[in-house]
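The following block was generated as part of the benchmark described in Methods. Ligand: adenosine-5'-triphosphate.
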Amino acid sequence: MAKTKEPDLMDKLVSLCKRRGFIFQSSEIYGGLNALWDYGPMGVELKRNIKDIWWEAMTQLRDDIEGVDAAIVMHPKVWEASGHVQNFTDPLVDCKKCKQRFRADQVEGKKCPNCGGELTEARLFNLMFKTFLGPVEDQASIAYLRPETAQGIYVNFLNVLGPSRQKIPFGIAQIGKAFRNEISPGNFIFRSREFEQMEMQFFIHPKEDSKWLEYWRDERFKWYINLGVKKENLKLHQHDNKELAHYAKMAYDIEYNFPFGWKEIEGIHNRTNFDLTQHSQFSGKDLTYFDDATKERFIPYIIETSAGVDRSMLVFLVDAYHEEEVKGEKRVSLKLSPKIAPVKVAVLPLVNRDNMPEVATKIFHDLKKHFKCFYDDGGAIGRRYRRQDEIGTPYALTVDSQTLQDDTVTLRDRDSMEQIRVNTSQLVDVIKKKLG
Ligand code: ATP
C-alpha cells in the first residue's frame, strides 16, 4: 500500500507519537494546554538530529556562516524597530454567543463556524507574549518573548563581523525558541505557541540580491530532499505583492503537501536593508559596512532562510509514515532517513535465555559508542520488530542460537525487512556504511 494521505493520517500520527514517546501534550496530567507540546525520548532525539544536521549544513560545512545564540528576551526597542509592536497582529473576531475566538481572515461570512452565532467586528491582536523585567510590573518594565530568532542576529551584526573577520557576503545562523500567541493554532505541532526556529541571515551587497535569493531558495529546497522528503510533496510558492511582508522585496515559501493541505514550512526572504536601517535608526549605532576592496560604504541587504524545527519534524513524520499489509497484518513504519532516525540500531536477543541476553548486552555496549542504540528483550521478537518499525529504527540486530556458534548476528532492514548475517567484529563498519 502506498503512503496514506487519507484525512485520518494526522490522527494516526498523533496517536503513534504519543504511544511511542515522540510528542505529548504539555501539562497533560492537568488536562493539557492548547498548542503547547512536550517532546519525549524519541521526539527529542529526532528533533536534535534535525537541528544538528541543519547546523552542520549551515555552519560547519560553510566558511561564510557563523553561529550565535542570543537571549530570548531582548530590549523592548528591538520590537519597535522591527515593526512587531506595530504590525505583528492578526485580526480577531469573537463569537457573541459561544465566546470562541477566530482569526477574521480564516472565517468565511459573518457567522461563527462553531455555533453559527453572531461575530464581533474584527480588532487587531498582537501575537507577542508580554512579560515584565524585574519586580515592578509597570509600563516601563514590559518586555516580550521573542516571536522570531532573526532579530537576535541583526542586533549582533557588528559583534559577529569584528571577531569573525568575515567579509560580505556572509551569514549568521541561529537555532532557538520563539513564541507567538497564535489565535488559531492547530494541526498538531504545525502551529503552536512555543516553537523552535532555525534561521540564517545572509548579509550581501544590494546589487547581488536576486542571485543570493535564488541560491538560498534552491539550497534550502534541496535540504529537505536530501533528508528523504519526497519531491512531489514539496513545492515553491512565490509571494505576490499582497502577501509580501512589510520588510520584504521578494519572497518564496517552501510548501509541503500535508494531509490538511499545502502549507508553508520555510520562508526565504529578500529583506533588503530594512532591518539594519531600522536598528541603526532606533539604536543610534552605525550599522553600515565598509568594503575595503571597492572603498564603498553601504547598509547590507539580507537574504533570510527561516525554518521551523517543529514544523520540519512534522514534515519528516508525515512523509515517513507508511502502512502495508504483511502476512495479513498491518505493518506501520516510519521510513525516516537514517540520518534523522531517533535510534539507528536496535539490539535484540531472540530469546531471554541460553546466554543470548549476555551476548546481546555486550554488543549493545560496544555499539552505543558509535550509534544511538536501543536494547529490547521484552516480548515476542515480532512485536519488538514492530516497535522499532514504528519509531523508524533503520536496523535491528538479533542475537540468535547461531550467534553463539559462529559470532554472527542477523541485521534486519526496516524497509525491505530483509535480513543478512554479519560477523560481530564487522558490525560497526557494516552499519556505518549502511547509514551513509
Ligand atoms: P504562518 O503564515 O504559517 O503563520 P509565518 O509566515 O508567520 O507562518 P514566519 O514568520 O515566516 O512564518 O516563520 C518562519 C517559520 O517558522 C515558518 O515557516 C514555520 O516553519 C515556523 N513557524 C512560524 N510560526 C510557527 C508556529 N506558530 N508554530 C510552529 N512553527 C512556526
